[in-house]
Amino acid sequence: MRGLWTTDRVRAAEERVMAVVPAGALMRRAAFGVAVVAAELLAGGRRVGLLVGAGNNGGDALWAGYYLRKRGVAVSAVLLTPDRVHAEGLAAFRRVGGRVVDRLADVDLVIDGIVGLSARGPLRPDAAEHVAHLDAPVLSVDLPSGIDPDTGATSGPAVRAHTTVTFGCLKPVHALADCGDVRLVDIGLAGELHGPDLVELDVADVGLAWPVPGPEDDKYTQGVTGIAAGSATYPGAAVLAAGAALLSTSGLVRYAGAAAEGVRARWPEAVCTGSVTDAGRVQAWVVGPGLGTGLGAEAVLRTVLEAGVPVCADADAITMLANNPDLWDARDPDTPLVLTPHDREYERLAGPVGDDRVTAARKAAERFNAVVLLKGHATVVAGPDGRVLVNRARSSWAATAGSGDVLSGVLGSLLAAGLDPVLAAGCAAKVHVLAAELAADGAPIPATSLLGAIPDAIRAVRPL
Ligand SMILES: NC(=O)C1=CN([C@@H]2O[C@H](COP(=O)(O)OP(=O)(O)OC[C@H]3O[C@@H](n4cnc5c(N)ncnc54)[C@H](O)[C@@H]3O)[C@@H](O)[C@H]2O)[C@@H](O)CC1
Ligand SMILES: Nc1ncnc2c1ncn2[C@@H]1O[C@H](COP(=O)(O)OP(=O)(O)O)[C@@H](O)[C@H]1O
Ligand SMILES: [K+]
């Protein structure tokens, strides 16, 4: 489990630490950490170039240049704002023979000290111009310049980092955007940080949480998952969601709806009926994928919301909740509800997602008193209690039709097994991403292949 702290919290912690350590100590700890990683990345190379911005991020780069010079590395620096530069860092850099140049040329590694925690918006044109011409790998100081530290959003030119060295703690950008290989340097903030704002689950967390049957278990005790999905027009969504539930736990899966014949043909182990009203008892429902939005579908959604068990509402269920707010009344507010919108579904529910996906998920979670899993390359799970989990994919192969239906089936089975709904959503997102990676292995895949890789993904997270 990795914690992530927003810039406000980091600054507050830094201020408290800076009040009790000698001036400049934190920056030198940070810069030394950058220099150590730079020396490692240089391997046989001997020439480092610095891109130096107006603030302390530039100061870090200059001090890192100072330490590298002292190790005999040739270091040159471009000062992007010569009238606003970290004076002490520049003086130290010059003192050891660092050169100030107009443009970086013939360097083996670039250190990006353009902007850090105070970054706003994309790279300014002059900085963008220097970055556009780089052909050496880039080591970013704190974060890749041009990416928003708190949202991970990029709205124009930004640095593409091979490695990022950050200080004290991870920030949201490190989980929400591509920062290359992220290294964390301890500068002594730990005692002042307190609980993180966001959490990224690691495979061990997911493996430990994943339901495993014990000697006393049978098919009912592990939680029965109900799937209310699919229609005559979209039977495939039902097959995918039911299959995902079947592959995620060994508990029973019931399917109820118009695609019963197709589900039975593909998954003989599923117990299929034509309607949710005669489906039998379940411990959680998945409702929505391929269901349609007509009156019949509304009745299904209402029945499921009234059932008094946790519900994962996806796809058409979200659209119906957005179009017909009366449907919210069917729900018992004390029973967990997980909404799994993609951006367009989110927009129907709560307006445009915008650049700040974490805030968007948080707002909707609070407004609807539900867990909101906002899907995308970076998936954000927000609980109505303020907890937030983030999970970024390392590839985009999951962006394929039907892949969301698979996610909802996995999530439904974890709800049925009784997992806390925020954890269930985080675990489902993680295993979904892993399954996509394993199935794709570098080439496009249909959602059925992603589905087929669920067992391998679960094996990959489970403790040995
Ligand atoms: N506060 C501390 O104790 C420490 C801070 N450290 C460093 O200090 C950094 C934060 O420094 P600052 O708060 O001085 O600010 P930055 O160095 O992040 O930014 C400086 C200035 O860059 C300009 N800028 C903003 N957005 C830009 C963009 N998109 N393109 C180009 N220029 C832009 C603004 O004028 C801004 O004030 C951290 O990221 C970290 O690298 C480290 O030395 C560790 C200790
Ligand atoms: N660019 C991307 N990179 C990685 N995963 C993605 C990307 N875009 C979408 N996904 C994932 O793919 C799935 C798509 O779900 P959804 O849009 O509901 O598809 P469908 O309705 O066709 O099943 C979600 O799990 C989402 O997180
Ligand atoms: K930077």
What can you see in these coordinates?
This protein has 464 residues and is α/β, with parallel strands linked by helices. Helix content is 40%, strand content 16%. Helix 11 links the parallel strand 13 and strand 14. Helix 3 runs parallel beside helix 4 and helix 9 packs across helix 10. The longest helix has 20 residues. The protein is elongated, with a radius of gyration of 25 Å. It starts with a strand and ends with a helix. The relative contact order is 0.10. The model has no long low-confidence stretch (mean pLDDT 96). Bound molecules: ligand NAX, adenosine-5'-diphosphate and potassium ion. The site of potassium ion has 11 residues, from strand 5 and strand 6. The site of ligand NAX has 29 residues, from helix 1, helix 2 and helix 3.
Summary keywords:
binds adenosine-5'-diphosphate, alpha/beta, 464 residues, 18 strands, binds potassium ion, metal ion binding, Bifunctional NAD(P)H-hydrate repair enzyme, UDP-N-acetylmuramoyl-L-alanine:D-glutamate ligase, 9-stranded mixed sheet, YjeF_N_dom_sf, EC 4.2.1.136, binds ligand NAX
Structural class: alpha/beta
* Molecular shape: elongated
Radius of gyration: 25 Å
Terminus-to-terminus distance: 18 Å
> Percent of residues in beta strands?
15-25%
Provide a count of the helices: 18
The total beta strand count reads: 18
Overall tally of structural domains: 2
Mean pLDDT: 96
Ligand roster: ligand NAX, adenosine-5'-diphosphate, potassium ion
Query: Architecture of the largest domain, according to CATH?
Result: 3-Layer(aba) Sandwich
Please give the order of strands in the largest beta sheet. Answer: 12-11-10-13-14-15-16-17-18
Q: Helicity level, as a percent range?
A: 40-55%
Ranges where pLDDT stays below 50 over 5 or more residues in a row are: none
